[in-house]
Amino acid sequence: MNTTATPSRGRPRSAEADDAILSAALDLLAERKDVGGISMEAIAARAGVGKATIYRRWPGKVELFTDAVTTLRSPLPRLGTGSARDDLVKIVAQICDEMDSPLQRAISTLMMSESHPEIGTRIKRQVVAPRHEAVFRTLERGIERGELDPGLHPDTVLYLLVGGALSYVRNATDVSPQRCAELLVDTVCLGIDRQDGADDRVGS
After folding, report:
1. What is this structure's pTM?
2. Residue limits of the HTH tetR-type domain (predicted)?
3. Which of 173, 140, 179, 171 minimizes the C-alpha distance to 157?
4. Where are the domains of the chain?
5. Among the four residues 18, 103, 119, 193, which has the most C-beta atoms within 10 Å?
């Protein structure tokens, strides 16, 4: 008979506790607008767990808030339609949709954090950069296939699309993310002046 004891692997992580902690962190961020003013004790109290429970999962606020923001992130849209224009519209529509969302509000707050600038750096790498990279890759494919003007400057196009998305969200609340994306992509990348789209213009 084998009497050798099986080593204990410890208690499995609770998905419910994980969700409660991440939600508590985001709720406090929305209320206080500053990571520096949020303690681990406050997060634990809001989540209804002990502080040790948090530290078993995350070594500090940098890792915790980075993970909290990534839980709000939607997967990138499936690309490969065969049309650079249609792929760009998909990406920009998602960006437009996210501009007025808990994700964007959390990103904006954390990117401006003076007490923990490394959080902004991580979020830029894990959340923002993949979206920008998708735009760059789509532009490159469109230029290679002759769909887009080879004179387009990818960085400038990205700034115009993202800045335009933010402007539409703030000023043209009656324009859907899909329509916003179509107008931006067609105007910035294809140079189409949509005279028939007067009702969609800001201030019209």
Report:
1. 0.71
2. 15-76
3. 140
4. 14-71, 77-190
5. 119
